[in-house]
Write a structure and sequence with these properties.
The chain has about 240 residues and is of the alpha+beta class. The protein has a domain of about 120 residues. The protein is about 35% helix and about 10% strand. It has eight helices and five strands. The strands form two sheets. It has a three-stranded antiparallel sheet with strand order 1-2-3.
Length: about 240
């Protein structure tokens, strides 16, 4: 039997210990910890970058200068010896353009899908469909047009470029289009004042493409071509 003093000591010890568990005080339930570096509120996703707006053809056209300088005589070889491989994918610019613009394309075996031997062109210049078959008597049915003709580019400022820039221009995909051979021949080196695609449904796109090439290479434009493009784009 405990003495009154012993009973008092036991009771005092129990009282000072608080009767709790876990060493937290209060309820004894540990509060969740916040991970290092985190915040009380969830992180908000960042907004995706807004893609740049497409250039307005009329604004680009307005920024183009009138021709100046003396271009001298034009020679095709001023733009290089022929089709090059500007993107270094192993295929020349002509075959890259055919592969891009034709459908149901087949390639010559052993060329790493470079040399186009057949396909179908939905020609933007005439609105017709042309079966392309590579060969001496058939290849000319589909030709690669320079949207801004090389001779016109020469007169518009390319006469002052070095050979490297002229070769880049002649092989730039922006300036290349697979089209009906006869339409390409009828266009020759004409600007929009003298020639527009017979397929009027393509006139707006053609005009915008023509201006985009001039703007990229900071070429000039005649008053007649400027007026023609403004008139066409006004109806788009």
């Amino acid at each position: 039997m405990l003495s009154p003093v012993a009973v008092f000591v036991v009771a005092l010890v129990v009282f000072l210990g608080g009767g709790g568990t876990g060493g937290t005080g209060g309820s004894g339930v540990a509060e969740p910890e916040t991970a290092p570096g985190s915040t009380a509120s969830p992180a908000q996703p960042s907004d995706a970058p807004t893609p740049p707006a497409a250039a307005d053809p009329l604004e680009q056209l307005d920024a183009l200068a009138a021709p100046s300088g003396q271009p001298g005589d034009y020679h095709r070889d001023a733009f290089g010896p022929g089709w090059l491989d500007p993107d270094r994918n192993g295929c020349d610019a002509r075959n890259d353009t055919l592969a891009r613009d034709l459908v149901d394309v087949t390639f010559r075996p052993g060329t790493n899908d470079c040399v186009v031997v057949s396909g179908t062109l939905h020609d933007p210049y005439t609105g017709t469909t042309i079966a392309f078959l590579k060969g001496q008597d058939t290849s000319e049915l589909v030709q690669i047009d320079h949207v801004v003709p090389l001779a016109l580019a020469w007169r518009s400022g390319a006469f002052g470029w070095d050979t490297v820039e002229r070769e880049a221009f002649a092989n730039d995909p922006l300036n290349l289009l697979a089209v009906d051979g006869e339409a390409n021949q009828s266009k020759s080196d004409s600007g929009p004042a003298l020639w527009m695609p017979p397929n009027s449904a393509f006139a707006c796109e053609y005009s915008a493409d023509f201006i985009a090439v001039l703007a990229k290479y900071r070429l000039s434009i005649t008053a007649e071509d400027r007026s023609s493009l403004i008139s066409t784009l006004g109806g788009c």
